[in-house]
């Protein structure tokens, strides 16, 4: 089996971390293609190299002297090279990069050098080939990623290398201009490489042992999720659980390649396996809980709303014409409620209200802010009776007033609206009933 392994910035922040990564790669011959990020933070106060590169480029653009910042960047790499004790000099690369920065080669070019230089160190350290992502990851002139072209080139190039390092985060347009993905984009590169080599597994190594059932900032030491489907992960990520770059899912999902989230600092942990579908029975009825604060409920009332054809369309148009996106839309016979992000809605509130009056002529509109949405997600819910009952009795026991309930027809999730201040207690109550007491 071929494995593609991607290592995040914290896994490559220092020579010590590089040594751990080296151990992981050497312990399994299947780990043949490596995608590194740029060096991340060594501690909470540290700065990521990518951020330093953006800063350095901003200085160049402002016509300032970039020496001090550029030297700090060089120092990060030289310390890694020195700490690993490898024979490698990046002096020629530094010269070219500094010159190009001064000549304003672009912020994307500047940021991409973080991965480029780290890739060179990684290749030298492992004795693998170095494949510049600019040769194999393609963008069109508008900066759109070209999936088919990339797959063709990557396949062809990697067929010549048994073991290779391909830096993450960037590629190039046809004229050679460097273009990056959005932040965190090395995850996407890993996925693209996995597809191109038809990998049996895409391992994504980070600093946590996979996805957790609930946010560790709310639940102390939450249980890890062993297996999650792409659809479940999408629901959880949408509600704020962050593990992978959203766009990293598509290339491997289509190719049926599983992703394994692993911890560089605890390589013995199995991590989380992300799959298209599975008959693996989840340990608990629910797979995960995630949520976000800061929503407004716009309650629209109108007598006989149910018999007015097109009412919902007109109401939604009021949000659309003001550029406000809609999160959820529970409705009754003569009422409909639209949940929107408070931050997005605030500046447009009066415009939306006036559009609603003009388009729908409602009897009344009430606004309720400071609400939170919680998604309880799990493929196991479909086959289990009483899940909703258990959620709501747990919330009732915790004296939490439920403002909204929405169950998707896929029965993959139940969305619950509560007040912002009830957000953490609600998650604790749901976690307790499904995980701590293992019901
Ligand atoms: N180094 C880039 C960033 O900090 C890309 C990545 O790490 O995935 O966003």
Question: What do these coordinates show?
Answer:
It is a single chain. This protein has 439 residues and is of the alpha/beta class. It folds into two domains: 3-275, Carbamate kinase (3-Layer(aba) Sandwich); 288-436, VC0802-like (2-Layer Sandwich), CATH 3.30.2130. 39% of the residues lie in helices and 21% in strands. It contains 15 helices and 17 strands. It has helices at residues 15-26, 49-61, 67-84, 91-102, 107-126, 133-136, 147-158, 186-196, 230-238, 249-255, 311-320, 342-346, 349-360, 387-397, 423-436; strands at residues 3-7, 31-36, 129-130, 138-139, 164-165, 170-173, 178-180, 201-206, 227-229, 259-263, 272-275, 288-301, 326-328, 335-341, 364-377, 404-407, 413-419. The strands form three sheets. The protein has an eight-stranded mixed sheet with strand order 3-5-2-1-8-10-11-9, with helices on both faces. A six-stranded antiparallel sheet has the order 13-14-12-15-17-16. Helix 1 links the parallel strand 1 (3-7) and strand 2 (31-36). Helix 2 packs antiparallel against helix 3 (67-84). The chain is globular. The mean pLDDT is 95. Aspartic acid binds next to helix 8.
Task: Describe the secondary-structure layout.
Elements lengths: L2 E5 L7 H12 L4 E6 L12 H13 L5 H18 L6 H12 L4 H20 L2 E2 L2 H4 L1 E2 L7 H12 L5 E2 L4 E4 L4 E3 L5 H11 L4 E6 L20 E3 H9 L10 H7 L3 E5 L8 E4 L12 E14 L9 H10 L5 E3 L6 E7 H5 L2 H12 L3 E14 L9 H11 L6 E4 L5 E7 L3 H14 L3
Parallel strand pairs: 1-2, 1-8, 2-5, 3-5, 4-6, 8-10, 9-11
Antiparallel strand pairs: 6-7, 10-11, 12-14, 12-15, 13-14, 15-17, 16-17
Helix pairs in contact: 1-3, 2-3, 2-5, 3-5, 4-5, 7-8, 8-10, 11-13, 14-15
């Amino acid at each position: 089996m071929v494995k593609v392994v991607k290592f995040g910035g914290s896994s490559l922040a220092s020579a010590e971390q590089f040594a751990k990564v080296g151990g992981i790669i050497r312990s399994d011959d299947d780990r043949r293609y490596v995608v590194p990020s740029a060096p991340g933070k060594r501690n909470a106060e540290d700065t990521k190299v990518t951020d330093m590169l953006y800063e350095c480029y901003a200085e160049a653009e402002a016509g300032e002297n970039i020496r001090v910042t550029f030297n700090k960047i060089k120092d990060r790499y030289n310390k890694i090279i020195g700490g690993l004790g490898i024979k490698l000099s990046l002096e020629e690369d530094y010269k070219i990069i500094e010159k190009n920065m001064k000549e304003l080669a672009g912020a994307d070019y500047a940021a991409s050098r973080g991965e480029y230089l780290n890739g060179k160190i990684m290749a030298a350290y492992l004795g693998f080939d170095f494949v510049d992502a600019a040769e194999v990851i393609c963008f069109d002139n508008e900066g759109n990623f070209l999936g088919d072209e990339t797959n063709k080139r990557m396949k062809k190039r990697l067929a010549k290398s048994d073991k290779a390092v391909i830096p993450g985060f960037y590629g190039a347009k046809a004229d050679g201009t460097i273009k990056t993905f959005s932040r965190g984009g090395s995850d996407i590169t890993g996925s693209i490489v996995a597809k191109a080599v038809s990998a049996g597994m895409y391992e994504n190594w980070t600093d946590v042992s996979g996805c957790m059932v609930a946010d560790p900032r709310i639940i102390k030491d939450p249980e890890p999720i062993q297996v999650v489907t792409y659809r479940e992960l999408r629901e959880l990520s949408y509600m704020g659980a962050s593990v992978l770059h959203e766009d990293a899912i598509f290339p491997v999902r289509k190719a049926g390649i599983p992703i394994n989230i692993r911890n560089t600092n605890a390589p013995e942990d199995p991590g989380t396996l992300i799959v298209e579908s599975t008959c693996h029975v989840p340990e608990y009825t629910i797979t995960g809980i995630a949520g976000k604060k800061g929503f407004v409920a716009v309650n629209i009332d109108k007598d006989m709303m149910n018999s007015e054809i097109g009412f919902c369309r007109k109401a939604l148009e009021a949000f659309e014409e003001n550029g406000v996106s809609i999160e959820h839309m529970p409705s009754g016979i003569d009422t409909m409620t639209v949940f929107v992000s408070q931050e997005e809605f605030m500046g447009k509130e009066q415009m939306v209200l006036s559009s609603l009056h003009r388009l729908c002529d409602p009897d009344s509109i009430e606004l309720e802010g400071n609400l939170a949405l919680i998604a309880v997600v799990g493929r196991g819910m479909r086959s289990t009776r009483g899940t909703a009952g258990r959620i709501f009795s747990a919330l009732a026991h915790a004296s939490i007033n439920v403002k909204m309930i929405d169950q998707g027809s896929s029965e993959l999730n139940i969305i619950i609206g509560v007040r912002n201040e009830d957000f953490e207690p609600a998650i604790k109550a749901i976690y307790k009933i499904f995980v701590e007491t293992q019901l």
